[in-house]
Amino acid sequence: MKTRTNQISRLIGAVALAIALSAGMIFAAAPVAAQQQEEAAHVTAETPEGEEAEAVAADEAAAEGMEGEETAAEMAAEEAPAEPSAAESNPYGLGALWEQGDFVSKGTLIILVLMSMGSWYVLITKLFEQRRLFDQFNRVIKLFAPTDTLKEGIEALPKRNSYRAIAESGEEAHTQFSKGLSSEVTLSDWSTAALNRGVDALAAKLQGGLALLATVGSTAPFVGLFGTVWGIYHALVAIGVSGQASIDKVAGPVGEALIMTAIGLAVAVPAVLGYNLLTRRNKAVISRARRFATEVHLRILSGKVA
Q1: pTM of the entire structure?
Q2: Element spanning 125, H or E
Q3: Domain range list for the chain
Q4: How many contiguous H segments (helices) and E segments (strands) does the chain have?
């Protein structure tokens, strides 16, 4: 009986000891778990702040990089040399001549430009006028030749045709001779004189402007030569002022002189060539006008007038 009681007491003690140990382990693990949870929460709470700090730091670094690039670009722009102007890129060209030249050189250049413009205007307008007269003569041959009388031929020609004036002068001469206004000369001489006046009037019209071409062709080289002399004068003045004949002192004035010479030749050569061309074509037009005047004269002498 006593032995059984001891066994029960031992069993109860063992159970109590096991319960005590289990409770101790539970109470001991609770603070550790709580601490771990607090640390995890702390880490979780700190993580966004760290990421935000890193993002802010990255933005600041990017901003500093952009500012550095802008600063470097501004410094490069300040250090880069400015683009040279026309006079600086070519100090001996036409632009430098106009900017650095005095009123004499500028006046000479303007005169040459005006002479060139006038000669080209005359050349172009006269070429068109001659072309029109050639076309009118072709129409005269087609319209005047098939008619029987001078009066019909005149009526067949357009009113603005330059050759019609020659035919009208012949008709007028025949009318005046028929009225007895000329008793000392023959009809042939009277009509020939009238027709020649009509041809001369056309020739005088064609000669208009050729005097300008001849003047430009003969005087433009001398105008350019005047600019050359003026440029050499500036070169000598530069040598005298500096006291030394260095190339940088005389290059500008000498370049000005050469440019003036070149411009004078460039103005004169087209004027001379244009004058010769227009003169040769004028002779062809006058030859056709005389041919038409002969046709009119034959109709007058043959009596085929009205």
Answers
A1: 0.63
A2: helix 103-144
A3: 1-80, 94-302
A4: 9, 0
